[in-house]
Structures are given as structure tokens and as C-alpha cells.
């Protein structure tokens, strides 16, 4: 009985998270904010469904299945990568360098100045930003 | 599925939530301001379909749907990256 309530609560919460993630895709104003809804809320929703499935098969069927853990691991690994690729495509297609905020370091945004050599990250922030953004 | 009333209701609720989410994604694919929005909506659609497959696996009580969900996750990831790469560079494998 307790297990049934637990699995039901997990399923209801997962459904709400999934619905919120998909609704955020419609509600939020532009793509950079819209990226957050599916990559975070919907991933949590699917994770809840997968945990509920593991608990259901462990308690009611008496066998532990590892497929859900594999799917969870794969989704959690790939969601940030797809979000990064979509944001990169958005920056290069729809935005100019002037729309982006200044980085506060000596280097510009890494996706705008690609280099073949490996670049060390800049840790100390410079006082003067290299690019003026207030000229429009 | 045994005679578990509460679990049945929760499953139906989750089915409805992810189904409505799929409809939202479909609307976003039809009416999007730019191409990256459509890629994002397609990626969300894949995640929702994975959730629906796993829910269907719980309802039927069989573990045969997990391979399908795993395949959906893999092909969804690869196709999203390939699409984003294509509109970014005009080429997928350089």
C-alpha cells in the first residue's frame, strides 16, 4: 500500500514536471530562456517516470531492471549537449556579437572566435571590457 | 495490471500530462519564429515520447518497451545534434 502511494506520487509529480516543461516551451519569450524548460523540467519528469518504473517492477513484479538506469544516464548526459548545440546554432544564426553580454575577460565569447590551438581559460577578470556595447 | 485503483489513476494522469505536452510541442513546431526553436521542440518531443513508452511499459507490465525507449533516446540525441550542426555549418561531418 505504501509502495503504491509512493509510485503514484512519483508518477503524478513526473507528469506535472513534464507538462510544465512542455508548457514553458510555449510560454517563455525567447529561445535562450526557452531552452531551460525542456532541458531541465522535462528531464526531471522523465527521470521521475523511470524511477517509478524501476520501483514498480521491483515491488510488483519482483525483478530489478537496469534498463531504466541506462536510459536515465543517457538522458542526463545528452540533455546539456543538445542544449549547448541549439544555443550555439541560435547565437550564430539569429544574434549578432552586439546582442551578447560582455564576457568581462580579455577573450570574447569562445564560439565567436574559434581557434585551432587549445586555449587556457582566463580566470582574472579585467576592469575595462574589451568591447563597447553601448554604441547603438 | 492488477486491481490497483490508485496506481491506475496516477498512470492515467501521467499519460494525460505527457500527451498534452506532446500537443504543446507540436504547436511549437508548427508556429516557431526560427529553426532552432523547431529543433528544440523536436528534442522535447523525443523526451516526451520516451516517457510515454516507459509509462506504457508500466501499464502492460512488460519490460519489452525499454529497448524501444533506449533507441529513441539514442536516435533523438544523434538527430538533434546532426540537425543543429547542419544549420550551423551547412555540413554534418567535416
Automatic annotation (TrEMBL), chain A:
Per UniProt, the keywords (alphabetical) are:
Membrane, Transmembrane, Transmembrane helix
Q: Which residues cross the membrane?
A: 6-29, 41-60, 66-87
| InterPro entries named among the record's database cross-references | PhaG_MnhG_YufB (IPR005133)
Supply one GO molecular-function term: sodium:proton antiporter activity
Q: Compositional bias (Basic and acidic residues) at which positions?
A: 125-136
UniProt KW Lyase keyword = no
Which positions are tagged coiled coil? none
* Region listing for Disordered, in residue ranges: 113-136
The protein's matches in NCBIfam families, at most eight in alphabetical order, are given as: CPA3_mnhG_phaG, PRK12674.1-5
The protein depicted here goes by the name Na+/H+ antiporter subunit G
